[in-house]
Structures are given as C-alpha cells and as structure tokens.
Design goal:
Blueprint: H1 4-13, E1 17-24, E2 27-37, E3 43-48, H2 52-59, E4 62-67, E5 78-88, H3 92-102, H4 109-117, E6 123-137, H5 138-141, E7 146-150
Antiparallel strand pairs: 1-2, 1-4, 2-3, 3-6, 4-5, 5-6, 6-7
C-alpha cells in the first residue's frame, strides 16, 4: 500500500495554489491563494488583511481547501482536499516559520516586505492546521481513489 502521508507531502510540494473556503453567517466563500507547507503539513498563505477571506478567518477559523495540480481530461484524476483551523499569524516565531517556507517558493523577500508595509492593503501570513486530508488519487490507489488522512 502506498504511503498516504508521503503522497500528500509530495503533492503539497509540487503545487502552489489552493482554493480556500471560509464561511460566516452560513454564507460560504471561496478564493484562490498561493500557499506553502511545512514538514508538519501546516499550510501557509499570505494575504491582504482587507480581503474577505482574511476577515472571515477571524470570525470563524474553521476552513476547507482544495488543491488540484494541472490536469487534462485524459489524465487519471488526482486532487487533495483538507479541513482544519486557520489563524492569522502575529507571533514573531510563527511568522518566521511561515516566511521560511513561503519566501522563494511564491514571492521573494523584497515583495513580501513591500506587501507587509503596504499602507492601504497590508499583508499578513496565515496558517491552516489541518485536521483531515482527503486524497483522491487513481494513480496510486487504483479503484480505491478516496483516501483519508487524519491528524
């Protein structure tokens, strides 16, 4: 049997955009964000504090996300979904960790610094601590495509 965690780690390392779902007052919202992950499978993104998803995370930290690598209809479908708890990072040590996995993968240091200092749309790092991943993977699991990985 394939190692589900290793497949998830590889999938996260080889993709850069996720669809993030938030919800407040029973009204869901979804957006695309660039992301990076760490060795504990935490997911980090960097967004303007003025964005709807940034504000919704402050009111309801339960989120979901979908990550799909580029595919064609001829490819065996693969995708990764997750659920977990999101937070804006305010602790210097947490920001340092987020920046260490994000910088260079998505934006360079100068771009990150510029966006953090932007007066109209300041940016901050956010983190999802996943509670569950659902991997859909016909390549590694044949007819048993749906694989759950709980944390």
């Amino acid at each position: 049997m394939a190692d589900i965690r290793k497949i998830i780690e590889d999938y996260l390392a080889n993709t850069k955009m996720m669809q993030l779902a938030t919800s407040i007052d029973a009204q869901p919202w979804i957006c695309n964000v660039w992301f990076a992950s760490d060795e504990d499978l935490n997911i980090y993104w960097f967004s303007s504090t003025t964005r709807r998803h940034s504000n919704e995370v402050l009111k309801n930290n339960k989120v979901a996300a979908a990550i799909v690598a580029p595919q064609t209809p001829q490819d065996t479908p693969r995708g990764l979904q997750l659920q977990g708890h999101a937070e804006v990072l305010t602790n210097d040590e947490d920001v340092k960790i987020a920046r260490s996995v994000y910088e260079g993968r998505i934006f360079d240091a100068a771009t990150i610094d510029s966006l953090i200092k932007n007066k109209e749309k300041p940016h901050k790092f956010y983190r999802i601590k996943p509670t569950q991943f659902v991997l859909f993977d016909g390549e590694n699991f044949g007819d048993n495509w749906r694989q759950e990985y709980n944390l």
